[in-house]
Amino acid sequence: MDRKKHIVIAEGHAIARAGLRCLLSAENEYEVVAEARDGLEAIRCVESCRPDLVLLDVTLPKLDGMAALKEIKRRFPETRVLVLSAHTTDEYVLEAFRRGANGYCIKDVTESDLFTALRTVLDGQRYLSPGISDKVLEEGPRGEKTLKCDSSWDRLTEREREILKMIGEGYMNKNIAEYLCISVKTVAKHRANLMKKLDLHTASALTAYAIGKGLVAK
């Protein structure tokens, strides 16, 4: 007989955790090896138990689920993460996948749908609840369904956004380097990356974009 799949439940509400534990424990395929009440505890549980899958709520105390998700996938990329959330907006779903989620399941699902989600993710495939799939998928050139592309803004790193703001405020590379305690060469590289990602090719174009994003007062 195959080994049971080890599951960590990360859910902020005790009643919800108990319900999930009873549901999973009733199935011979799964074994709940740990439970976490917050994001920090979720990371510790993964570190100590090395589960096959984490069932993760994105709304967690101390460290929110999105941050916990990113850290879990960074440190334990082989661990699969199925997000279980009440949020169905595009932003939440896409952000979860950007941070490494293997599946996204809304909380208002049947037991059958939850087990389908678990099996799909454990089989190495991506899962999206039917109720949200149409919102975040688009048709590719060959008719295949893929996640919507991130906007150019979403692809910028925090450092790039910081530098974009300073460019918009009129600072030169030397001034930016001094303020951020980095080299002028590094600033120039970030500036080049900004131009490439945003498809903008002059300082004035970057300034206009920064103003449009509300980074700089008009």
List keywords for this structure.
transcription; alpha/beta; two-stranded antiparallel sheet; 6-stranded parallel sheet; Sig_transdc_resp-reg_receiver; Rossmann fold; elongated; Arc Repressor Mutant, subunit A
CATH structural fold name of the largest domain:
Rossmann fold
Structural class estimated from helices and strands: alpha/beta
Distance from first to last alpha carbon: 67 Å
Corresponding CATH architecture of the largest domain: 3-Layer(aba) Sandwich
Helix share of residues?
40-55%
Number of E-type strands = 8
Note the quaternary state here: single chain
Q: Which strand order spans the largest sheet, edge to edge or round the barrel?
A: 2-1-3-4-5-6
Describe the structure.
With 218 residues, this protein is of the alpha/beta class. The chain has 2 domains: 5-147, Response regulator (Rossmann fold, 3-Layer(aba) Sandwich), CATH 3.40.50.2300; 158-212, Winged helix-like DNA-binding domain superfamily/Winged helix DNA-binding domain (Arc Repressor Mutant, subunit A). 49% of the residues lie in helices and 16% in strands. It is built from 10 helices and 8 strands. It has a 6-stranded parallel sheet, sandwiched between helices. Strand 5 (103-106), helix 5 (111-122) and strand 6 form a beta-alpha-beta unit. The longest helix is centred in the last third of the chain and has 15 residues, at 184-198. It is elongated and about 65 Å long. The chain starts with a strand and ends in a 6-residue tail after the last helix.
